[in-house]
Amino acid sequence: TQVGSPSGAPAEPPRRGLGHVAPRHDVEGFVGSFMRELNYGQGVSLTRSSLNDRYLALARTVRHHLQSRWMAALAQQADDQAKTVCYLSAEFLLGRQLDNAILASDLDDVVEEGLGQLGLSLSTLRAQEIEPGLGNGGLGRLAACFIDSLATMSVPCVGYGIRYEYGIFRQSFEDGWQREDTDPWLALGNPWEFPHPEHAVTVNFGGTTEHYEDEDGATRTRWLPDWDVQGVPYNYMVPGFRNGRVNTLRLWSAKATRGFNLNSFNAGDYVDAVRAETFAEKISMVLYPEDSTPQGKELRLQQQYFFVACSVHNFINQVLPSDFDLHKLPDRVIFQLNDTHPVIAVPELMRVLVDEKGFDWDEAWTITQQCFAYTCHTLLPEALEEWSIELMGRLLPRHLEIIRRIDEEFRAEVAAAFPGDEAMPRRMAIVGDHTVRMAHLATVAGSKVNGVAELHSQLLRDKVLPDFSALWPEKFTNVTNGVTPRRFLRLANRNLSSLITEAIGPGWVTDLDRLRELEPFADDPAFRERFREVKRLNKATLARTLQSRNGIEMPTTGIVDIMVKRLHEYKRQTLKVLHIVSLYEGVVSGRLAVEDVTPRVFAFGAKAAPGYAMAKQIIGLINAVGATVNADPRLDGRLTVVFPPNYDVTLAEKLIPAADLSEQISLAGKEASGTGNMKLALNGALTIGTDDGANIEIRRLVGDENFFLFGLLEPQVEELLAKGYDPASYAAADPRLTSALDLIASGAFTGGDASVFSGLVDNLLHHDRFLALADFSAYMEAQDRVDAAYADPEGWTRSAVLNVARCGFFSSDRAMREYIDKIWHAQPVVTSL
Ligand code: NBY
């Protein structure tokens, strides 16, 4: 039964038998509870309270409504036999919590009115929340969307990850160059977490292993570690949308153990002992800011093992009943591996079953294989994680032994399946000459391996893991990514949400396929006018946000053309810059009449990995071009570049609803899926994009006539690279490209200093790994089609409405349904309260 009471309904009676009292769901109850939190939680009166006091009091008041359901869900979890999805992810990029909590508990009106009675404004208080930036980009945000959907679908799930003390760095620009600062997101207090130090888990590292005989005379192994740390769980509530379900996200924080100081450091004095503590606690100190190229750093392997060991232990020894028969483990859990970062969980579960629970090897391996599934998020070879054998042996000697045995048995299996092919077992090995290949381990151990869009899954089978897909074709599958409609439509775009709900009712929020019912409205001129009004309002809101956040001036007329994603060469922000430079050069040189230039605002959002020099150059270039273009009177204000620093979930929620055009211009075959592409289309932006990742599926659904396709197809990319790619010849063949590159190289954007971007231009002319120059002419031609389409507002709006109507497929609810059916075989549970 559903427990979310519609707003305005009488307060629910206190529920009996659950050991808790439900909060009142009305304005009077809210005001009383808010004041109690302010007075006795924060210890201040309303008049003397700071903005932060008020925000914390509000957050705690709202959270009562979720806690009540959470306790019920936890009580029930212990009773029922449902299979639980344990989503193991080194990153959860949650975004702000307050609005989502208000939405989930259906408190919008109550909060608005209650705060109003106290003379407070919700929008001021919500701005006080610092978002938990515990992820880099798409992979971490996907995890956050997935746990939202599972809660909304009442599927038992625990998200397991790391409570980084410092999340993704804060980006600012100094003279246009990226500067990184730390993200002390916990500094003002975090009302959304519940620490449970009493449930801390000990995690071991280092040392050696030894063999011994057990009582039955069998040879067994034990690990003699030489240091350990404690993992303290911090629980977060993951509320379903008004369905009474609240799941748990459990993030681990490292603390020094008591014995730690004396044993391993032999610290004779107090100061040394404290120093030893920081050694332990640095494990969960900071999120690694690389979003593609793993660094192979020891601390990172420590992080991975740390959170995975805590999580496996927590589920087996603390979540499952103490008398649970572990032979039945696959009936009760699936550990989903979000990329290779948590793969060390595989040998960890083997170690627990064999060394701690006394299982024999084969039995344990059968169970383990059924308990894991692996999602791959990349196609870049440099992104496939490998750990040096030396490091693995030093940090996790028992796990290395286990991995070696899995590898030996696997290679024997391959040799038997492909007799005579000696190269095959070597190519497929988990343990290579110097490294352990985590993607191979995940593929061997996982019951399923999935890619994140159709093309990606196909390339994963054919190009990345072809030997494995030959051996186990049925192991490979696709689940195209999705995004949560709660955060990215209902909350981020309230104007469009209201318009949609007015047209087709509110059911779309949990059944996004129903957006189809909007299709007829695409032909209704009055609806289209209201749709345009929504965009105008969203652009005005964005302009105000950028003004107050960064003092950025953003015009609200013309095409709002948005490219938001991590900065990476394969995503080709440079191609976007070349388009802007070419338009600018056209006007300045007289090739283009300024009246013929369609007004556009180019909005960028992108962080570069701090060690990725070329990405940082590209950020410098975008800012330099922007400064020049924005200031040049010859353009008559028609082209504006805005690049607000520190793109994060909070800013995404402002940018995406304002977009007319979505830039998805990666080199075909490189973007695994993309999820920003889905969010933008769902908010009524038209896509200009390559035949890559989920763009392909977006285009198929919205229709060719509502999508601007350009560029080489993946097989053409392969072909061109095979025959030898010469970027300079493409530059020479298109005078617009020659001029644009020349202009950058001349120092026109750097006060005459030609040296600043010479490396970048040289790289494009002589290497251009991601074929930006090869796709330039096609991109320019597609942008001309964009301008022509935009000149017809009715036609454009029609396409935009159809984009919204036809993108229901990209709900993460649908993605979760597919994981459930194809991979997990889990069931929703009925929340009975
Ligand atoms: O995962 C992204 C893909 O690029 C994107 O196409 C896809 O839509 C999304 C969700 O499936 N991958 C991604 O975001 N990767 C990372 O953030 C990441 C982070 C750390 C590391 C590697 C990748 N690392 O090795 O440290």
Automatic annotation (TrEMBL):
<dbReference type="InterPro" id="IPR000811">
    <property type="entry name" value="Glyco_trans_35"/>
</dbReference>
<feature type="region of interest" description="Disordered">
    <location>
        <begin position="1"/>
        <end position="22"/>
    </location>
</feature>
<comment type="function">
    <text>Phosphorylase is an important allosteric enzyme in carbohydrate metabolism. Enzymes from different sources differ in their regulatory mechanisms and in their natural substrates. However, all known phosphorylases share catalytic and structural properties.</text>
</comment>
<keyword id="KW-0663">Pyridoxal phosphate</keyword>
<keyword id="KW-0328">Glycosyltransferase</keyword>
<keyword id="KW-0808">Transferase</keyword>
<dbReference type="GO" id="GO:0030170">
    <property type="term" value="F:pyridoxal phosphate binding"/>
</dbReference>
<feature type="modified residue" description="N6-(pyridoxal phosphate)lysine">
    <location>
        <position position="679"/>
    </location>
</feature>
<dbReference type="GO" id="GO:0008184">
    <property type="term" value="F:glycogen phosphorylase activity"/>
</dbReference>
<comment type="function">
    <text>Allosteric enzyme that catalyzes the rate-limiting step in glycogen catabolism, the phosphorolytic cleavage of glycogen to produce glucose-1-phosphate, and plays a central role in maintaining cellular and organismal glucose homeostasis.</text>
</comment>
<dbReference type="GO" id="GO:0005737">
    <property type="term" value="C:cytoplasm"/>
</dbReference>
<protein>
    <recommendedName>
        <fullName>Alpha-1,4 glucan phosphorylase</fullName>
        <ecNumber>2.4.1.1</ecNumber>
    </recommendedName>
</protein>
<keyword id="KW-0119">Carbohydrate metabolism</keyword>
<dbReference type="Pfam" id="PF00343">
    <property type="entry name" value="Phosphorylase"/>
</dbReference>
<comment type="similarity">
    <text>Belongs to the glycogen phosphorylase family.</text>
</comment>
<dbReference type="InterPro" id="IPR011833">
    <property type="entry name" value="Glycg_phsphrylas"/>
</dbReference>
<dbReference type="GO" id="GO:0005980">
    <property type="term" value="P:glycogen catabolic process"/>
</dbReference>
<dbReference type="InterPro" id="IPR035090">
    <property type="entry name" value="Pyridoxal_P_attach_site"/>
</dbReference>
